Amino acid sequence: KARRTLAIIKPDGLLGNYTDDIKRTISEYGFSIVKEQIVQLGEATVKRFYAEHSSKSFFSSLVKYMTSGPVLVMVLEKDNAVADWRALMGPTDASKAKITHPHSIRAKCGLDTEKNCVHGSDSTKSAQREILFFFDELALGE
Ligand code: CMP
User: What is the set of active-site residues?
Assistant: First the structure.
């Protein structure tokens, strides 16, 4: 099983001062943060990162949200990292997470189905792509 996943603390998480809390949870659950970087993403970068959602109705709003402030991008490592980080984040819709997964990260710092505070790769394959995207190939100046 893949030992690494990509996690992002989104602009609402970073600006809302949830970073220390989230990092504490990350280490409590046995992940180590092997790489991290704060970046202000530009429109082109977000569009490329979320290309699979480009035809969705929420795409332009998602791009606006993800460029609204800096994000913290991290590579997390532990056994079964992809699935375990997704479980720890909770469901995409943070308003539902508050009811069904009250101890999840999204329940604590997210707002709704868009402003859900954190991202995690959805598969081993995505994790490989997303880690390379941020920590290898991405030219940060657009
Ligand atoms: P994330 O897991 O980072 O992957 C895609 C993102 O799109 C998701 O988190 C949300 O921020 C956003 N998103 C997903 N579904 C919706 C939706 N129905 N409406 C608005 N934004 C969404």
Answer: 119
Mind listing the domains of the chain with CATH numbers? 4-135 (3.30.70.141)
So what's the ipTM on this one? 0.95
Torsional class of 17: left (φ above 0), alpha (ψ -120 to 50), beta (otherwise): left
Pocket flag, ligand 1, residue 4 (CB < 6 Å): no
**Structure token digits, residue 97:** 């997470």
Q: What spacing in Å lies between the alpha carbon of 141 and ligand 1's midpoint?
A: 25
- In angstroms, the CA 84 to CA 122 distance is 11
> Does 121 contact ligand 1 (Cβ within 6 A)?
no
Q: Mind listing the pLDDT tens digit of every residue in the chain (142 residues)?
A: 679 999 999 999 999 999 999 999 999 999 999 999 999 999 999 999 999 999 999 999 999 999 999 999 999 999 999 999 999 999 999 999 999 999 999 999 999 999 999 999 999 999 999 999 999 865 554 4
